[in-house]
Amino acid sequence: MTRFTDPAAAIAEAEFLAAQTDQPQAIVRDGDGMQVMGYNDAWLQRLDVIETVTPTWEDIE
User: Fold this and answer.
1) What are the structural domain ranges in the chain?
2) From the CA atom positions of the chain, what is the Rg in Å?
3) What CA dihedral angle connects 16, 45, 4 and 21, to 10 degrees?
């Protein structure tokens, strides 16, 4: 996983991964930064989720 300090970059990565994997992605706190990971992984690890990105119908088609 890549560590982000720029929120816009983390959101862009989460949107890209959601479109590619057709799975919701979570942006989680990681010390002073953020990481993007699958929402299920973040939930199972009980991490501090800042934002969730889900794939859209446009991504699926």
Assistant:
1) 3-60
2) 11
3) -10
Sheet holding 25-30, edge to edge: 3-4, 33-38, 25-30, 49-53
How many Cβ atoms are within 10 Å of 39's Cβ, its own excluded? 19
pLDDT tens across 4-57, in order? 999 999 999 999 999 999 999 999 999 899 999 999 999 999 999 999 999 987
pTM above 0.90, yes or no: no
SS3 readout for the chain: CCEECCHHHHHHHHHHHHHHHCCCEEEEEECCEEEEEEHHHHHHCCCCEEEEECCCHHHHC
